[in-house]
Structure formats: structure tokens, C-alpha cells
Amino acid sequence: MTDIMTQCPIPDEECWTAALARDRSYDGRFITGVLTTGIYCRPSCPARHPRRENVRFFGDGAAARAAGLRACLRCSPDDVSRDERAVLSAIAAIKAAEQPLALAALAAEAGYSAAHFQRVFARHTGLSPSVYGRALMAERAAQALSAEGSVTDAIYAAGYSGPSRFYEANQGRLGMAPSAWAAGGKGVTIAWAVVDTSLGQMLVAATDKGVCRLSFNEGVEALEARFPNADLAQGDAKFAALLADVVAAVEAPGDFAHIPLDVKGTAFQEAVWRELQCIPTGETRTYAQLAAAVGKPKAVRAAGSANGANHVAVLIPCHRVIATGGGLGGYAYGLEIKRKILEKEAK
What we know:
It is built from 16 helices and 10 strands. By secondary structure, the protein is an alpha/beta fold. It has helices spanning 2-5, 12-21, 61-66, 79-96, 103-110, 114-125, 129-145, 151-157, 163-169, 178-182, 220-226, 237-251, 267-276, 287-293, 300-308, 335-346, and strands spanning 31-34, 39-41, 55-58, 70-71, 189-197, 200-206, 211-216, 231-234, 285-286, 321-322. The termini are far apart. It folds into 4 domains: 2-77, DNA Methylphosphotriester Repair Domain, CATH 3.40.10; 79-183, Arc Repressor Mutant, subunit A (Orthogonal Bundle), CATH 1.10.10.60; 189-251, Double Stranded RNA Binding Domain (2-Layer Sandwich); 267-346, Winged helix-like DNA-binding domain superfamily/Winged helix DNA-binding domain (Arc Repressor Mutant, subunit A, Orthogonal Bundle). It is globular and about 70 Å long. The strands form 3 sheets. Strands 3-1-2-4 form a 4-stranded mixed sheet. Strands 7-6-5-8 form a 4-stranded mixed sheet. The chain has a two-stranded parallel sheet with strand order 9-10.
């Protein structure tokens, strides 16, 4: 029996908590075995919970079968690995394709209906296949535009059928024109100001699309490093109104949705940032919960890195993510500022 109990890489109590919550984010990470019924299930199985003393946890279905258990007909736990294989295969196909792939084609290849495959893909990646594909193309374009060469060549190399499709797909997303990405912000005007707040000196910078930088204890030198060829200027009346909104949001935390942003990251980073914006004011999440929320429960470290890569502090509330044990974790601008923001929100 000891050998059976040690086959799961996740601690027993964490598994039991996930099973009680029927947490789908743990599907595929471990198997719940019930010794009295001889059945093994997904953590999210809707069947009635067994008694704790009758439960053992396994790393996968093969380990459960080796212990003499059989798969639950209600939750089909072995289909989890099939889902994972289907998603990985679809991701490989999307990355290899020169043009966007239709959902129906990806689903047919996996042997699923289009609607079911869309749910499976979103559960594992946090994005639909079409959004994942578009984000991948935009990421490729941004990388190509950051290198030397023709803007048009970069657009085609990223998989777009032409410049018009690139502009259509990225309207309002990149913020800067493609040529500006290729030249370190050349031709783009970024308004900025450093203001005093209860959290210390705060740098706010914005393009005509929205806030592109909010940080503490930084000066204009930080912007010059990020956008070496941009035109950095003191803001006009429009920027002053935006700045007033930002300061108010920092001093009295709440809903920041009305403040426009001009930020860009990888597909995974942007998924993490969207999830951060869904955390209610006054609440926190752990790094593990953040990773699970974007459909990548094993990518805790990557979620932490994406959290730290946030360009606009407070407005994308990375401060609401804390360590599993309840500690503050890390913060780019120091734990004292993070503590003060959380205390403001708690009130």
C-alpha cells in the first residue's frame, strides 16, 4: 500500500482539496482512486465524494490500473491525456502553418466536434485556437519588426496575407505603427510625467492609445531605454486629464477599466495580464492560482515571470498576487509599496 500512496507527485492534501473542489485545473495532473469501489476518476468528477480514508492518489491512469482500479465511466479520466495530445498537436500545427487554421480543421484532426475542441483548447491554454493563432502571428510580427529589414517582409514572414490584414488584425493592439516597432519607437510621441503620490514618486507615460508605462521610483531615463527613438515630451491637456485619472486610481483603488492602456506582451503574458484584471479589488490570488486560471497549472514560475513583466503597475494589478503561504511574494518596486497598495484596497 505504501508504494501506491507514493506514486502521485502532488502532495496528498493538495490533491484532496482539489478533489473536494472538483477543480478542473488539476485534471491530467493526478488521478483520484477509490479503493472501496475499485474506480479511479478525474479530480473534477461530479460523482459523490468518497470517504477520505478510502482514497488514494496516482500520477496517471496507468498507475491506478496497476493498483487494480478501473476507469470511471462517468468522467472518463483517461480522456484527459487524449485532450492534452490533441491540444499539443493543434499548437504544433498552428505554429507550423503559414496561414491561420480553421477551427473545424483542427477539431477534425483531433477527432472532436468544433465546439468541444474549442472548450478543450481553451481549458488547457486559456485562449481559443483562433485567438492563440492571432496572438502568435502578432508576436512573430513584433519580433520581426524589431529586427532590421523591410516592414512588409516582416508582415509576410509573420504569416499575414498582406499589410492590410496585419493592420486590421492589430488595430488598437500594438499601439505603435509597425515601422515604429522596427525603429525603437521612431515617429511616436510618448507623453510623460513624474508625480508625487502616497506611494512615492510615480512615472506615468502614454501614447495616443493609452498608458504604456506606470512605475515607481523611475525617471524619464527608463522610457529612453525602452523607446530610444521615440519623441518623449511633457504632456498636453489631454494627457493631463489622463494623468489625473491614473493618480486618482492609484490613490483610491477600484475599477481601472475606464483607463486606456497601450501594452504588449507574448500571448501567454497577455493572458496572465487579462486574468490579473479579473481579480476583484480587495482580493488576492497565489501564483499557483494565477497559473491555473490561465489554463496552465504547471506553469507557476512562468506565470510569476509574466506577472513581473507587467508594464503598468496598479492598472494591471500584479500586486494582487501573493505567495502560496500567504507572504507578499515579490514586487518590482519593493514590498513596502506592494503592502501599501493592498492595504488601500482592503479598505
